[in-house]
Amino acid sequence: MSLLWEAVILFFLGLWTSILTYFTFRAYRLLKYKSSDKSGLRRWSLVRFNPFSDTGGEQSFVIALLNDSGDGLIITSLHGRGVARFYTKKVTRGQADQELSSEEKTALAQALKS
Fold it and tell me: For residue range 77-94, what is the model confidence (pLDDT) as tens digits?
């Protein structure tokens, strides 16, 4: 592999790490801010995983953010070679409005227990 491609890959890995760190920090701030309010997103869970065989590490993740009534959302980030996609699913009373992947089911169950 040429030195140019290595630099490009390292640049995008650094960029992805920065985005993930920023997103995690913002989610933490939101949880902390709303923690005193019953409708705030006090229950949460993070599940990291690797959905593709051609990428290394567990760079993809699912975050479930719920209030005490089990209402909230699930955010899924799928990171593949050269692409990152984000999806959200609404949760009402502990039930998602769409079919969930196994990782999303795990995150939802953990958040409901927290």
Answer: 988 777 788 999 999 999
Residue identified by tokens 């640049």 is 11
Burial 25-42 (b: 16+ CB within 10 A, else e): eebeeeeeeeeeeeebbb
Would you give the DSSP letter of residue 82?
Answer: T
Q: In what order do the strands lie in the sheet with 83-92?
A: 43-49, 60-66, 72-80, 83-92, 95-96
Long-range CB pairs of 85-93, under 8 A, 24+ apart, other chains included:
91/64, 91/66, 93/69
* pTM for the structure as a whole: 0.65
**Range(s) of the domain holding residue 33:** 3-113
* Count of domains for the chain: 1
Asked if 89 contacts 81 with a C-beta cutoff of 8 angstroms, the reply is no
